[in-house]
Write a structure and sequence with these properties.
alpha/beta, 6 helices, 7 strands, 22% strand
Amino acid sequence: MQKPNVSFYVLSESKAQDFLGFICHLIQTALNKSHESLLILVEDESLISELDDALWSYAASGFIPHQRLMLDAKISDSNINDSNDVNNAHVANAHTVTSALLAPVLLAPYLPAEFNGIVVNITARPVNNFITTTSNTRLTRILEIIRPDTASVQEGRQKYKHYQQLGYKLTHFKV
């Protein structure tokens, strides 16, 4: 299996101020250049909601078609202790979720088991941490977004080292 290319987008202060606009622009550019599915990986529910709204209103004359994926309703906050529990909890139901994927862009706090395509990662962890051993996920590209704050830069360094150790082809863009 071919390893995905990983592109790091290190945002300037001005780009970080329009974070949602930058992501929408990046998504639209990726859609224009590829016919692959695209998943925006986000663990923060409020950010998912903000991105959902931004994608619907991105262009004055249109929108970016997308679908918001939720964790299975059977998974309650009371039995989830950390993000690894979230990932493990959705695995049993991931196949039913993926059969209903309709939009070219997906917003989700996890990687569906059968996802194939490009991932825009807005989490603190490498995308590989979201792939289970039973998953048939095939990633062609990973787009990592790094904000200009100290915590995000440190997380970006850790992810860069992680992907480098896996032998992925890495590119770096200052925007």
